[in-house]
Amino acid sequence: MDNDSSTSLPFEDEYKGYEIYVEPNPDQHNEGFSWSISKNDECLDSGLEFDIKMAIDAARKAADNYESKSN
Length: 71
What we know:
This protein is α+β, with helices and mostly antiparallel strands. It has one helix and four strands; from the N terminus they run E-E-E-E-H. It has a four-stranded antiparallel beta sheet, covered by helices on one side. A hairpin with a 2-residue loop joins strand 1 (11-15) and strand 2 (18-24). The longest helix is centred in the C-terminal third of the chain and has 19 residues, at 52-70. The protein is elongated and about 40 Å long.
């Protein structure tokens, strides 16, 4: 698992008006990183990826999908 030490966890960012949140998988028996996107305090999508970069990329892709649906 690629654990980029330059990315502090939990990772929080705003991307195109969506809040992105990434943290280590809360399931202690499985590796990975949990991600979610939200807007106006509503969780819109979430998932699990093997490394931090993949989790951030997946969250941004999900935000892009929501943005394209709203346009």
